[in-house]
Amino acid sequence: MSLTLHSVTNASTPAAEGVWLRASASVSTLGFAVVDRTFNPDGTPSNEFRHIYLFGDVAIAKDEWIRLVTGPGKYRKAPADKDGHVVHYFYWGSGNCVWNDAGGDTAALIRYTTINTKPVPPVPKP
User: Taking the model in full, what pTM does it have?
Assistant: First the structure.
């Protein structure tokens, strides 16, 4: 896969918390998502994603980095640092931390395709 989840920074504030990803080849972020996986009491994966971030369509060049910050902010591409690393900053927009303070969460990078969509109607009034 051309995009890999590198690491997760757990912190006590949404602005300091985030996920690092790296592109091993040029790639569009469209169709990628980061999810907070949860587990059942017996340790098996649950069907629940408590948090999900869907990336929009941004071109990422080979060896560039993505920093998905939990807190609010606006996408920006930082120029290369002294080591030549370019970082794309995306923001989840959450006012609360995503990752549990005690650890135990699992971050997952998934690739998805939307097959079709249907609007959900309101609940009928009695």
Answer: 0.85
Contact 107/37 with Cβ under 8 angstroms?
Answer: yes
CB 87 within 8 A of CB 65: yes
Per the DSSP assignment, residues forming a β-bridge with 34 are 53, 109
pLDDT per residue as tens digits for the range 77-104:
999 888 889 999 999 999 999 887 777 7
Instruction: Domains for the chain: give ranges and CATH numbers.
Output: 3-111 (2.60.40)
Question: pLDDT for 41-63, tens place per residue?
Answer: 787 777 765 789 999 999 999 99
How many H-runs (helices) and E-runs (strands) does the chain carry? 0, 10
Residue 37 · residue 108 · CB < 8 Å:
yes
